[in-house]
Automatic annotation (TrEMBL):
Limits of the Histidine kinase domain: 20-224
Superkingdom, natural source: Bacteria
Organism taxonomic ancestry: Bacteria, Bacillati, Bacillota, Clostridia, Eubacteriales
Protein name per UniProt: histidine kinase
Length: 225
């Protein structure tokens, strides 16, 4: 538990710093992107067009790294509303499905009837996206990822189950630490953001892993009133 608190403190600090400079960095990036697009439109050389596309792509990648931080600042107002988790999952399905299919992988939903929860929809989308991204990245083409929702005891479970290569014991201890990654192009922010979102929803996380895959389970409390 102490280790968890340390992660969250570090994450809050990083979040606040990034949120305060995020906007300032984004504005010039937007300007640069705009002019790159104009130059690209005037360009005759295919080779140069390729370079412009690469530059724009990289700017978008940088932008997508900043975005999650903006939502991590401790003083960010929570925007929870009574909502059904299944609806959020279904809204995201086309996007996730397209992501999976692009890589020759499959995705299935197993959604049971569940009571409404108090959710920040934008954050829950981010949570799902991060879990699914990780699952897909761990899997070979032809394998399947399943998103499940169901009732267990007094709570609702959201589970993301992949058929990836599993997580090594020494990696398990570091999950959720900001900037921890085992990937060449990883940011090590996906799970840190997930853990922070889970914490802000007073939910709990459990991870099961083995050679045939990994399951991330988030347990939400059902509102009593
Ligand atoms: P990133 O994906 O950028 O590496 P994350 O915070 O999303 O950062 O994940 C941190 C690390 O946790 C990954 O580098 C990987 O080693 C491990 N991990 C997370 N999810 C999975 C998964 N579903 N299967 C295997 N390893 C995982
Ligand atoms: Mg990730």
């Amino acid at each position: 538990f102490e280790k968890e608190m340390l992660h969250l403190d570090k994450l809050n600090l990083v979040g606040e710093m990034a949120a305060s400079i995020g906007h300032e960095i984004r504005n010039p990036m937007t300007t640069v992107r705009g002019f790159l697009q104009i130059l690209r439109g005037r360009e005759k050389s295919n080779k140069n067009i390729e370079y412009y596309d690469l530059m724009i792509e990289e700017l978008d990648r940088a932008n997508s790294i900043i975005t999650p931080f903006l939502s991590l600042a401790r003083n960010k107002p929570v925007d929870k509303a009574r909502q059904n988790l299944n609806t959020v999952v279904k809204t995201l399905q086309p996007l996730l499905q397209a992501d999976a299919n692009k890589e020759g992988k499959y995705m299935d939903l197993e959604l049971y009837d569940i009571p409404d929860l108090l959710l920040d929809e934008k954050e829950i989308r981010q949570l799902l996206l991060n879990f699914v991204r990780n699952g897909l990245e761990a899997m070979s083409p032809g394998s399947k990822l399943i998103i499940k929702t169901y009732v267990e005891h007094d709570g609702v479970i959201l589970a993301v189950q992949d058929q990836g290569s599993g997580i090594a014991p020494e990696t398990m201890d570091k999950l959720g630490t900001p900037f921890f990654t085992t990937k060449d192009n990883g940011t090590g922010l996906g799970l840190a953001v997930c853990y922070s979102i889970i914490n802000r929803h007073n939910a709990r996380i459990e991870v099961e892993t083995g050679p045939s895959g990994t399951t991330f389970m988030v347990k939400f409390k059902v509102p009593t009133d």
